[in-house]
């Protein structure tokens, strides 16, 4: 079915609809339709109404996506598939570019690359509604619906800026990545090659060091002992003691909770006792109930706020962080200027946008009052008004790349600090007038250490060039995608006995290896039979999570491929015994230097390193002899 109506029973279509969408199926990995995770569904024309000419749909859609208007389409289904793929990027430039269309007699089966099933399914319904409103020549609230989809994605496990940046980089580098639902962690790599983590914290990091950085008072004392510059101050447990410390060290001071993140409860440049009381109460409110009332009062150092980032003990990036601000136009109030600023593309507040939306809160209103302003004030043209004292990016602050301006002494300082922490990523927050001046001769102070620093500010600064921090992080563990993988042998058909024979054959060559193996009837780790779960790909995942695994052997027959698809991409060796059309997809997902063995009746075809060998199986020659011999090419 390409352009013709179908008499098939409609599943989801209303009587006013031109199109019908039904039969959804989500695959977490390669499948018959795409070599990536995909949402697959069926698309048909209804008998209720005639569709408009393709050109009518293209004309309206191209107003939103001009590049789609420059292409030609075989059918409404092909246009629908490409629009779903484009909308699926959610105006965030998500790495979802693949789609497919497969015609059947009464419908077309569409596959679109998918990361998060719930969002992709809603995207399909979104595009369906859009097509139907075009058919009926009605208006469609595109922007409002898109914001809802963006919010849905942000709430997913993949929607955090740091998590998504690492996930996308891993995808581009060919590093296998999947989410461990039970642990709430991402896994990068397979078997003994893998690492697990949440954002920029990984299982190889020191838990003690990570926890130590959250104790800002102890960490500050430690840095002071090492001779690093930290501001004068003390820990207080009451408002009275806070006032005493401020009086002793002199105003202005900064106030912040000992335990905290993202600048919550932090107030800088407190000028007098009245401001200190308000700042103390904000810090107090930011402390979780289960934590002790410990608040830092320290000397406020004049200058700009910077983040120095080290990966694996090496300096890789620096960013200046400025508080949220608006620029007057002579007519608009601050409230209106904030509204205008929040509508800018750079403030989409997505996992890939350089700035968050400006947040209105008590701290903003108090700081405006200090400046003799309010949200109703009209600002004269070209005047910049800062909306808060703290450069909190999550509240709308601006990031400016400063990597190339950092003085050599400051790079050494950052790396010297990083050497004391067994952490993959370390963020060092400092305040100084300029990073171009040495800390030894300038008003330079270390504010705090972060064991789980965000990376979007470096990857997508509001001003300046991007620094590819995700690559620096992943290259700490893997020089390439190949380094993140263990050898994988995939069969379309193998019995338990043949599986055990294959395991034994490999163990004879590598007796110290740990081999995971699965067929439709059993799961093994070496010669030990394990519990077989009902979900096939969950069994495969469990094997690939094994931190000792050296090699995986897996069977993927037609039933599993149709029902679940594959868990992993690419095999080092594929062995096919009289394969079906569906099972031939296993040959599609191989590396250039993979070995492929195919048997059709008694005819054998072997492809290794680009060379093909064909011959006929001997009368008493078992097929196992053929593929066991070939395992040597990948081990």
Question: Keyphrases for this structure?
Answer:
635 residues; alpha+beta; 9-stranded mixed beta sheet; 5-stranded antiparallel beta sheet; globular; disordered N terminus
Give a structural overview:
The protein has 635 residues and is α+β, with helices and mostly antiparallel strands. 31% of the residues lie in helices and 24% in strands. It has a nine-stranded mixed β-sheet, with helices on both faces. Helix 2 (76-87) crosses helix 3 (117-135) and helix 8 packs across helix 9 (273-286). The longest helix is centred in the first third of the chain and has 19 residues, at 117-135. The protein is globular. Mean pLDDT is 93; it is low at 1-8.
List the helices and strands and how they pair.
Elements (H helix, E strand, L loop, with lengths): L18 E9 L10 E8 L8 H11 L11 H12 L11 E5 L4 E6 L3 H19 L6 H13 L6 H13 L3 E4 L4 E4 L6 E4 L2 E2 L4 H8 L1 H10 L7 E4 L2 H11 L3 E5 L9 E4 L2 H14 L8 E5 L4 E8 L2 E9 L2 E3 L6 H9 L19 H9 L13 E3 L11 E4 L6 H11 L6 E8 L12 E6 L5 H4 L9 H9 L10 E4 L4 H14 L5 E5 L2 E4 L2 E3 L5 H10 L5 E5 L2 H6 L7 E7 L7 H4 L1 E11 L2 E6 L2 E6 L6 H8 L5
Parallel strand pairs: 20-24, 20-25, 21-24, 25-26
Antiparallel strand pairs: 1-2, 2-4, 3-4, 5-6, 6-7, 7-8, 9-12, 10-11, 10-12, 13-14, 13-18, 14-17, 15-16, 18-19, 21-22, 22-23, 26-27, 27-28
Helix pairs in contact: 2-3, 3-4, 5-14, 8-9
């Amino acid at each position: 079915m390409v352009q013709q109506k179908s008499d098939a029973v409609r599943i989801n279509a209303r009587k006013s609809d031109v199109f019908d969408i039904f039969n959804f199926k989500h695959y977490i990995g390669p499948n018959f339709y795409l070599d990536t995770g995909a949402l697959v569904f069926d698309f048909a024309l209804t008998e209720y109404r005639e569709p408009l000419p393709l050109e009518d749909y293209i004309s309206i859609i191209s107003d939103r996506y001009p590049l789609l208007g420059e292409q030609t389409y075989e059918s409404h289904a092909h246009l629908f598939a490409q629009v779903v793929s484009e909308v699926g990027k959610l105006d965030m430039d998500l790495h979802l570019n693949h789609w497919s269309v497969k015609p059947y007699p009464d419908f077309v089966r569409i596959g679109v690359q998918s990361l998060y099933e719930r969002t992709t399914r809603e995207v399909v319904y979104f595009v369906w509604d859009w097509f139907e409103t075009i058919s009926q020549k009605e208006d469609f609230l595109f922007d409002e619906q898109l914001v809802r989809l963006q919010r849905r994605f942000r709430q997913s496990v993949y929607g955090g800026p740091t998590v998504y940046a690492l996930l996308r980089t891993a995808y581009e580098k060919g590093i296998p990545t999947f989410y461990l639902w039970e642990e709430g962690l991402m896994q990068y790599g397979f078997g003994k090659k893998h690492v697990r983590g949440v954002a920029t914290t990984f299982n190889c990091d020191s838990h003690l060091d990570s926890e130590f950085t959250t104790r800002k008072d102890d960490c500050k004392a430690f840095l002071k002992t090492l001779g690093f510059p930290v501001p004068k101050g003390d820990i207080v447990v009451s408002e009275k003691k806070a006032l005493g410390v401020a009086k002793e060290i002199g105003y202005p001071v900064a106030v912040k909770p000992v335990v905290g993140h993202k600048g919550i409860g932090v107030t800088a440049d407190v000028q007098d006792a009245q401001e200190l009381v308000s700042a103390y109460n904000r810090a107090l409110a930011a402390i979780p109930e289960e934590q002790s009332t410990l608040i830092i009062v320290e000397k406020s150092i004049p200058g700009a706020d910077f983040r120095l980032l080290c990966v694996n003990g090496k300096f890789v990036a620096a960013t200046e962080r400025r508080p949220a601000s608006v620029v007057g136009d002579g007519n608009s109030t601050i409230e209106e200027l904030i509204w205008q600023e929040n509508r800018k593309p750079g403030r989409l507040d997505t996992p890939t946008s350089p700035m968050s939306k400006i947040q209105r809160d008590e701290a903003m209103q108090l700081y405006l009052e200090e400046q003799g302003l309010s949200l109703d004030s009209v600002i004269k043209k070209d005047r910049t008004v800062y909306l808060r004292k703290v450069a909190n990016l999550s509240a709308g602050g601006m990031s400016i790349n400063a990597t190339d301006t950092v003085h050599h002494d400051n790079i050494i300082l950052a790396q010297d600090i990083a050497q004391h922490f067994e952490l993959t990523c370390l963020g060092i927050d400092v305040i100084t007038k300029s990073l171009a001046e040495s800390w030894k001769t300038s008003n330079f102070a270390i504010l705090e250490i972060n064991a789980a620093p965000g990376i979007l500010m470096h990857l997508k600064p509001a001003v300046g060039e991007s620094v590819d921090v995700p690559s620096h992080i992943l290259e700490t563990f893997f020089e390439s995608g190949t380094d993140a993988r263990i050898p994988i042998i995939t069969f379309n058909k193998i019995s338990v006995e043949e599986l055990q024979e294959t395991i034994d054959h490999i163990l004879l060559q590598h007796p110290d290896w740990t081999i995971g193996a699965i067929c439709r009837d059993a799961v093994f780790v070496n010669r030990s039979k394990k519990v077989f779960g009902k979900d096939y790909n969950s069994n495969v995942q469990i094997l690939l999570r094994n931190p000792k695994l050296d090699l995986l052997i897996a069977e993927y027959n037609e039933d599993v491929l149709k029902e679940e698809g594959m868990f992993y991409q690419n095999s080092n060796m594929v062995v096919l015994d009289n394969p079906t059309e569906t099972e031939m997809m296993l040959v599609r997902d191989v590396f250039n230097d993979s070995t492929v063995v195919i048997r059709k009746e008694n005819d054998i075809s072997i492809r290794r390193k680009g060379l093909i060998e064909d011959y006929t199986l001997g009368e008493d020659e078992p097929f196992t002899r053929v593929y066991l011999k070939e395992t040597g090419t990948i081990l």
